[in-house]
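Example protein
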Amino acid sequence: MECRVLSIQSHVVRGYVGNKSATFPLQLLGFDVDAINSVQFSNHTGYAHCKGQVLTVEELNTLYEGIKLNNVNHYDYVLTGYCRDSSVLEMVVDIVGELKKANPNLVYVCDPVMGDHGAMYVPENLLPMYRDKVLPVADILTPNRFEAELLTGRKISTEKDAIEVLDLLHNKGPETVVLTSMDLPSKSGDQFLVVLGSQRTVLPDGTNSRLMIRMEVPKVDAIFVGTGDLFASLLLAWTHYHPRDLKAACEKALSAMHHVIKRTMTYAHKITGPGKRPNPAHLELRMVQSKADIENPAIVVEATVL
């Protein structure tokens, strides 16, 4: 397989978020990854201290120009995550448009990282950019509940609300939408988060086919950073191998994540000892140690077709 991904998202020196969280799993699963770092920080912002730089639109333009001048701007996928600057995001849209002209089969996977738990952690002027410019060119979208609500202006309180939001997001452009980590009423009890996925496909005869799935993921009593970036990269990989089977792709992506998180929690508790809360350093994803689970995940999270 010869498959190349342009990944534009954050970079940390220590730990696993953004490109650090996405590149290794994609490489393990057979993809070449060209990474542009939207920020370069010492560590993620959940630590007491964080230092670093933010990529400017001029710097992004310079990097992309170098790739173009060498005539190596040929990609099968674009993956984007955390971005702090609306002009950088606007240029990302231009880059995706240019790459899609060169390769009409290019797939753009967008994790619209804006916030969580009711609060935005990027400038508010990124919301209209995502809603009006990014969504129309995105093929796969992976918002959390809060981001889906921001993008559609609709609150999600029930599964019915979430399905209506999925339809609204489809109508803005993406063929595949997965709503992650929703704290909704679960058939298995309140110890599970709900993930809903929807894939709309235009069949050769011009008609539409729709696959919708529901998954329940065990809650973990800890705050992890980088799991959304990991999920987006795994979903990219497994939808490549299962292009018309969102159920199989999501089961493999979420099962691999489950193994990584479980291994991370085991390590954190071993380091901190009984009865103590792990700190952000203890909870950095055990990515390298989970190599085998990323490459060939035992299915422990199963999807129900709705």
The domain at 4-305 is CATH 3.40.1190.20 (UDP-N-acetylmuramoyl-L-alanine:D-glutamate ligase). The first helix runs from residue 19 to 28. The chain has nine helices and twelve strands. The chain has a mean pLDDT of 94.
